[in-house]
Write a structure and sequence with these properties.
It is built from 13 helices and 41 strands. It is α/β, with parallel strands linked by helices and 713 residues long. Helix 1 runs antiparallel to helix 2.
Length: 713
């Protein structure tokens, strides 16, 4: 909009201070003539009349001073610039609770429409998106938008938000009116479950303690308030309900019964009149770990790879190793009693009867049955495995001879049997160069899956591993043969016996890989996997279903040794909705990935197994307090002259917009004000001298001549 303004301006020819000095000199020169003294009839002095020509002389000096001041008639042409109002719309998750989204959408539409009808006003609208785990970043988004608006044109800021803003600086201030318009009504109440302390890990076989508080935000403190019912569910089991005091810390004992993740869901009953039950639920994921793994290693006759197992187990700081070595050569027969062959007596009864079940894993490395372990102790080991223990055997030529452990009570749980009968020792021993191969079943088993350098899972091809030169021929009668030796004979057999597990390695030449013979191989990784599978480490379960949630995505992994397409997986959301999906097959595992935005416990089932995953709130600051509250922004609005208005209060409506000049009240009943800045740009200036030289010179000379003539009379 164009405007034309006129006014008188001065452009002095001389500096102002010099004009002032000349004026004083001229006044001093004229003053005696203006105040000439005289005597009255009584002879007293009095001020007389000015001398002749004094006034004309003063007029001449005045005209000269005016000419030097150079007065001008100035006319400006201005281009007025419209003011800008900023509308900030909160679109975080907490604004979707209840009817807030509808209230804010209607308010936005009305405010934008009313602002467009106001003259000399532009409105800019920005949306504040969900801020992830950082809360609502409304102040940051507002400052970013204000950086592009000249402050001389800023009429004000209107924020449509529930007030849950998490980036307001401590001394926040704004040089324009800030108005906050909130959905809902003041005095809302919200119940939440807050985790005070929750351990991330727990020892298997022990209990951990959770510290939680059930709080009623916005409710007046009441010592006699009724307790709340808290439902506690662990890994989808039937829940147990406890009565907990509101506002006071409560402790919950959670037993850790297995390795891997234990998911605990806590749900408080809904309070009447609360904003939303979304934050009445909390989820805790606790990873079960073993405190210290106790391993018993019994080495038989000395051989080149005897230190292989010891080095592997001693390298793990979480393993307590008890190691005994039988040093008597097999060919030595001097009738020396067994109890006299060691520096200390072999504690057979203590290890294999009294403390047998204290061990997590028993390893026999080329151990031959030469009467050192009576049958009753070998039977104890078999019962130990059936009851949940772990047994690993690495065998050599002794396995196919008359002292084989397969011929003892321990043979009942072994997954493979050597040949029997005359010539069994020669028939069971294979001494030839070969490269171990992973079987088709082994390509799907987690112990041998994706071993570096293995033969291709499908199609022809040899592994790039170094060669071995000895293997024991045995017939696999149970379990899974995951590796094979020369002519397809079983080389590694894994089996589940009762509640426990048995691993059988039918060669004593794996140590060649540690010496990098013929290129070596993944000796350490393979032995580690075998031992951890036997001790039931969750990541090495061959038949398992696991689920995890990371960065808002649910990943379900189904492991199985069964060939063929995997079955559909039923996924249950925290709200109870069930969907079915076909996972993608990847060898021995099938993987399903889905978005998981709802906080709570997600459930996945394949028809036989069920897995649980804990999803925390994507923005925990948002759901920590779901009340609409002006506490964080009330001070900013008051300091800037703005106001706080509620949309859900009784008789409330979207406030009207008014333009207000600076210095006046910026809010009143039913309305909020936007400052009128009157910012402009000067597009043209026209200056007309009021006393140009051609007029000033005759005027000054004329007055001077008149004054001279007047004084000369």
């Amino acid at each position: 909009m164009r405007q034309a303004l006129a006014g008188i301006d001065f452009a002095p020819v001389l500096p102002v201070w010099l004009l002032a000095v000349l004026g004083v000199v001229a006044l001093l020169a004229v003053l005696p003539a203006l105040v000439r003294p005289a005597r009255n009839g009584a002879g007293r002095l009095r001020l007389g009349v000015p001398a002749r020509g004094a006034l004309l002389r003063l007029a001449a000096f005045g005209a000269l001073a005016l000419a030097l001041a150079n007065p001008r008639l100035v006319q400006e042409t201005r281009e007025t610039r419209p003011d800008v109002a900023l509308l900030v719309v909160d679109r975080s998750d907490s604004t979707d609770v209840g009817a807030r989204a509808a209230q804010l959408a209607a308010a936005r539409e009305q405010i934008e429409a009313r602002a467009r009808r106001l003259p000399e006003l532009e409105i800019q609208t920005i949306e504040v998106p969900e801020g992830g785990n950082r809360g609502t970043r409304l102040w940051t988004a507002m400052e970013r938008a204000l950086a592009e608006i000249p402050r001389t044109r800023l009429a004000g800021v209107i924020a449509l938000s529930d007030g849950q803003v998490h980036d307001v600086p401590p001394n926040a201030a704004l040089d324009a009116p800030f108005h906050l318009v909130l959905p809902g009504r003041p005095g809302e109440v919200d119940r939440r479950v807050r985790i005070v302390e929750a351990p991330g890990f727990g020892i298997v076989g022990r209990t951990v303690e959770l510290r939680v508080v059930v709080e009623d935000l916005g409710a007046p403190p009441n010592a006699a308030a009724a307790p709340a019912r808290l439902s506690i569910r662990r890994d989808g089991q039937p829940p147990r309900v406890e009565s907990v005091p509101v506002g006071r810390e409560h402790r919950i004992a959670v037993p850790i019964e297995r390795g891997g993740q234990t998911v605990v869901e806590l749900t408080a009953e809904t309070r009447p009149g609360e904003v939303s039950p979304i934050n009445n639920r909390a989820v805790v994921a606790i990873n079960g770990v073993r405190e210290r793994l106790r391993v018993l290693l019994v080495s038989g006759e000395p051989h080149a790879g005897q230190r292989t197992w010891r080095r592997l187990l001693k390298a793990d700081p979480n393993v307590d190793l008890v190691h005994f070595t039988i040093l008597r050569p097999p060919e030595k027969d001097d009738l020396t009693p067994l109890h006299e062959l060691a520096l200390i007596a072999f504690p057979v009864r203590e290890l294999f009867q009294v403390k047998l079940r204290d061990f997590d894993l028993i390893v026999f490395d080329r151990f031959a049955n030469r009467g050192l372990l009576p049958p009753v102790y070998l039977r104890n080991i078999a019962d130990y495995v059936r009851g949940g223990g772990a047994l690993l055997l690495s065998v050599g030529p002794e396995f196919v001879g008359p002292t084989s452990l397969a011929a003892t009570p321990l043979g009942q749980i072994l997954p493979a049997r050597p040949p029997t009968g005359p010539g069994a020792a020669q028939a069971g021993l294979v001494e030839t160069a070969f490269r171990p191969r992973v079987t088709d079943l082994g390509a799907r088993h987690p112990v041998t899956e994706n071993l570096p350098g293995a033969n291709p899972a499908q199609g022809p091809g040899d592994p790039s591993w170094g060669r071995w030169y000895r293997a024991m021929r045995a017939e696999a009668r149970a379990g899974s043969t995951v590796m094979e030796g020369p002519n397809g004979t079983p080389l590694m057999v894994l089996d589940r016996v009762g509640e426990g597990r048995v691993a059988l390695v039918l060669s004593d030449h794996i140590w060649l890989w540690s010496r990098v013979h013929d290129g070596g191989g993944p000796q350490q990784e393979l032995l580690r996997r075998i031992a951890h599978w036997a001790m039931k480490e969750p990541e090495l379960e061959e038949e398992d279903l696991t689920a995890r949630i990371d960065q808002g995505r649910l990943t379900v992994i189904r492991r199985s040794l069964e060939a063929g397409p995997p079955p559909e997986i039923a996924v249950t959301t925290p709200e109870g909705a069930v969907t079915r999906h076909r996972p993608e097959s990847r060898g021995g595992r099938a993987v399903l990935e889905l978005p998981a935005t709802q906080p709570g416990v997600w459930q996945a089932a394949d028809g036989r197994r069920t897995a649980f995953a804990a999803a925390e709130a994507g923005n925990p600051l948002e759901v920590a307090d779901l009340r609409a509250d002006d506490a964080r922004l009330r001070g900013v609005a008051a300091a800037s002259g703005g106001a706080v208005r509620w949309l859900g209060a009784e008789g409330a409506s979207v406030p009207e917009l008014r333009r207000v000049v600076a210095g006046r009240d910026m809010a009143g009943p039913g309305w909020i004000g936007l400052r009128r800045n009157a910012d402009h740009t000067v597009t043209g200036i026209t200056a007309l001298p009021l006393l140009p030289p051609w007029l000033a010179l005759p005027l000054v000379l004329g007055l001077a001549i008149l004054a001279w003539r007047r004084e000369g009379r």
